[in-house]
Amino acid sequence: MIHQQLNILVLAVFMLASGLGMAQELLKGRVIEDTTEEPIPGVSISVLGTKFKATTGADGYFIVTGAIPLGDQKITVLKNGYYSKTIPVVIDTINRVNIDPLYLQLDNSDISQSQGIISLTENDLADDENAANNFSGLLQASRDQFLRAAAYDFSATFFRPRGLNSEDGKVLINGIEMNKQFSGRPQWSNWGGVNDLQRNQNFSMGLSAADQSFGGYAGVQSIDMRASQQRAGTQLSYASSNRSYRGRFMVSHRSGLWNNGWSYAINASRRAGEEGFVEGTLYDANSLGLSVEKKLNDAHSINFTGLYTPNRRGRRTAMTQEIRDLKGIQYNPFWGVQNNVQRNSRIREVEEPVFMLNHYWNINDKLKLHTNLGYQFGKIGNTRIDNGGTRIDHTLGQNAYIGGARNPNPDYYQNLPSYFLRNGQDPIDFQYAFQAQQEFLNDGQLDWNSLYEANRSLRAAGGNSLYAIQEDRIDDKQLSVNTIITADITENILFNGGMRYRSLNSENYAMINDLLGGSGFLDVDFFAEETSEINLDQAAQSNLRTPNRIARIGDRYKYNYNINANVIAGFAQTQFKTRKVDFFVAVNISRTVYQRDGKFENGNFPGAASFGKSKLLEFTDFGFKAGATYKISGQQFFDFNAAYISQAPTIRNSFSNARQNNETVIGLESQKSYSTDLSYIYSTPVIKARFTAYYTQFINGTDIGFYFTEDLTGLPLDDGSAFVQEVMTHIERRNAGLELGIEVQVTPTIKLKGAAAVGQNVYTNNPHLYLTSDDFRGPLSFGDGTTSLKDYHVAGGPETALQIGFEYRDPEYWNLGITANYFANAYADISNLRRSANFRLDYDGMEFNDFDRALANELLKQEQFDNYLLWNVIGGKSWRIYDKYVGFFATINNVFGQEYKTGGFEQSRNSNFRSTRDDQNNPQEVFAPRYFFGNGTTYYLNLYLRF
């Protein structure tokens, strides 16, 4: 039915557009670079204060069609990487205005900034859970002052514009959506390191109209990698930094459009470093991007784009205040020295090539059809130490599993001084605490040699490995097909529409990456427990079909399942332009289907509960948005947008424990949301400002967490602890606030700028919460089955961010900028389980006899982080030597080394009133909140040669 409706819609547009004639052409021209005099494609030309606009083609030419108001007008000329221009013109019906040539000056600092800062922050965006939600990487193409501040200066704090996550926006490359179906988030590293081919970008902010997608609340970032749209030339660059990587080499060459219709562009880079600002965070990335286009004739062009960007990165983790006080903010427990070389146990490796084939069809001057085919495949792997190695003991007449080892991570709570002071103040406790403190201070790193030695001893005795490196793998194969139509129905009506289909086959499994000197690893769960329904021998099996199997390097073990997902969607959007009001309406409809296919039959969930296909999860969703711009004058505007969106849950939040079974989230539904924003915009050649108020309400959200906890009520007295899956449903939250961005061109060389965001992101209800686990049967809930989150803040960067700064751009091609950035109202992520009835209930389900509600409220108060101020400096210089450019660009972030927290979370190990109270009464809290700390003073230097 959806196919039929969309096909009819496209056919109707074709029929309507076939009768459209040529419109009046009163303004045309050609845009070229002021030094090389080469044409610049993709330049936006607009008549200020009107609806009339155009974009330059590969030859730099543009034509603005329509009944442009006669008389004195101003046109704006915008292109990312170039200085913008505002030019006065006089429009009349007799003499057509022809601006040929129209020179643009290259903004070398802008290009260097796009090469440097975003490519560095994408490492942070992808590595840590608290950072993965940040969508500042989407904002790099925008010239709005607030969004530029959010992208460059605010992103280091993981500030989230409007409290939104990266899955709330869309990233498109050549019209193909790049957001992952598993999480909804873009995988930034899939195109990292090919910056030179991605300068042609367009960002549709928030709910505003987007040409190629219905979009989301965080907007649409559209990257155009067509070869013919790349500025011809070659660039070599070298960058040095102490943030994520230490060095980067990059080379790119763009041919421009040849007379025979061919064009190509290629970009290669190498980014590497033994560690960044944080210890042991190795960076090893190679990138290759290629785009080849053939212009068949004036109507048809075919473009091929390939991206191959394999990368490996050493991960870090959050730390408690105790660890920070002992080792500092650069400490990372995941690495140790092996054979005189740093080795990190937590390596994230991404290798997912992307291939695209794009067809561009200019049916006539009024109708364009863009059809795309994309295929992505490869792997995402994350390693960690598995300390659950065992052997089978047959002496008792039945299988018993002997082995397992203590957590070898040096920051394990039993290695810290707080652990030895938790029970009292005896002299022996102080002695053990002092010894632990000294050992941690003097070393505190992973002891690789002890792991190898333990395995060698077992191997010599004929035993299995006690330790191994487990790699959690995701091997995806995704096919994407879409078609996008653009039709100028009349001079005042523009139609955009499209259909897309995505099919994903995702293999998810654990694999033995390294046996650490051992001979094999017994594939059983050492922590499994016998129940009245399942004996220990069965419960311990990862796969009942291959019991007690010895896994070796490259073998899949523990879990193994596939996820199949299919999405078909269509959107239609119409934009209307009048003399005083421009407005648009857009609709979106989608159909999403998920299914899990288990390849292992888990011992705790035998038969169809884990093996084979789950039930189909099917979602039909609808979205609507509309907006209007009221033109008070040619310099002042009011802009209003509103939307209602229904969105299918991600794969991540659909299956309660996909690694072990086929169970789906109880009561799973699509998330509903509605949003509105209102902006006042003031734009002159001297002052540009935007003031926005926004409001967004999310309803019926879902979230799943995994952790080990203790003191669960309703379980046997000796079994109050379990590794659980925490499922929260019917989550409601509200994001509301104000944004301001302003820049003042005080003189031709000096610009003052400022930005401000003041918001509040809170839960507005008490969501449902239940736990699942292989340690108990069925879902476990507490009290009325909810958790009391209402009015708590949704964690995720500071809610208040303020900036003031200036830029100086000298006519001799050097520039300097300084910004002061103030952040406040950031909160730690709370334990949802602690806010449930479990917090006040004893093991027997009765309320604690010493429960103190006033004290409980104090224990459950959400932590607010300290406010802080960060100073950043940016500058650069370029020289022209004949027809070549040599230059540098440099930044210093956090000039004064201010220490600050970018995020953090409460641990849920202590889950009730007594355990939480007692731990907080200890000299040092054992299971204290863990924090992510921002970098101290960091630099970035980029040197380049362009010819």
Structure overview:
The protein is mostly beta strands. Helix content is 11%, strand content 45%. The protein has 10 helices and 45 strands. The strands form 8 sheets. It has a 26-stranded antiparallel sheet that branches. A 4-stranded antiparallel sheet has the order 3-2-5-6, with no helix packed on it. A hairpin with a 2-residue loop joins strand 41 and strand 42. Residues 1-23 and 109-132 have low confidence and may be disordered.
Strand-helix topology:
Blueprint: H1 2-17, E1 25-33, E2 44-47, E3 53-55, E4 61-65, E5 71-78, E6 85-91, E7 97-104, H2 108-127, H3 145-152, E8 170-173, E9 176-177, E10 201-204, E11 220-223, E12 233-241, E13 247-254, E14 262-273, E15 283-295, E16 300-308, E17 311-314, H4 321-327, E18 335-338, E19 341-344, E20 347-351, E21 354-364, E22 367-386, E23 390-393, E24 400-403, H5 417-420, H6 427-442, H7 448-460, E25 468-490, E26 493-514, E27 521-522, H8 536-539, E28 550-551, E29 556-577, E30 581-598, E31 612-613, E32 617-631, E33 636-647, E34 671-683, E35 687-709, E36 722-745, E37 750-763, E38 768-772, E39 800-810, E40 814-824, H9 853-859, E41 868-881, E42 884-893, E43 901-905, H10 913-920, E44 930-933, E45 938-946
Parallel strand pairs: 1-7, 8-11
Antiparallel strand pairs: 1-4, 2-3, 2-5, 5-6, 8-9, 10-11, 12-13, 12-45, 13-14, 14-15, 15-16, 15-17, 16-21, 17-20, 18-19, 20-22, 21-22, 22-25, 23-24, 25-26, 26-29, 27-28, 29-30, 30-31, 30-32, 32-33, 33-34, 34-35, 35-36, 36-37, 36-38, 37-39, 39-40, 40-41, 41-42, 42-45, 43-44
